[in-house]
Amino acid sequence: MENLKAYFSSQGFTPAETDQIASSFERKLLTKGDYFVQEGKTSRLLGFIDKGFLHYFINLDGEEKTTYSVGDNNFVVSLVSFFKQIPARENIRAVIDTSLWIIEKSDLVRLQNLIPAFKDFYVGLLEWQICCIDESRLDAIVLSAQERYLKMLHKEPDIIRQIPLQYLASILGITPRHLSRIRNEIR
Prior knowledge:
Elements: H1 2-10, H2 15-22, E1 26-30, E2 35-37, E3 45-51, E4 53-60, E5 63-71, E6 75-76, H3 79-84, E7 91-94, E8 98-104, H4 105-114, H5 116-142, H6 145-155, H7 157-162, H8 165-172, H9 176-186
Antiparallel strand pairs: 1-8, 2-7, 3-6, 3-8, 4-5, 4-7
């Protein structure tokens, strides 16, 4: 819980507010392959990743297509399903063993009503998540596979060493064989 408290403390919350916010979260452990959200089920949770890595994907013609990925000290949520309380169109699954702090939507609303600054934080968090998704979407269109790999290597070097090659390739939108070629060219 120390990472969670440190995160909220770094966002300008008082120690009392930080304790109140953190106590609204529960710990959840996902082993590699466990789902945080499954397609067709409504998402009622927002998670803070203490340690681990998850990827968002859809099944298209029997093949997994990664749409987004997220690691340590970041939030994870199926945005549309969570906001609209409708079945998710995507899956979110742990790529490696992952420790999360989760909060129910109703508790999130309660915190917004109890702590005025939390509402501002929450709006800022949503804006940040939307920007990250947009950046990821644009990177997939504008950057080459090698440029996307190098960017990920620079931003998240630990993740690249931890996750299996097939997941990394899926996150980058390429085949494992293509990823092996890129890695050999860079070395």
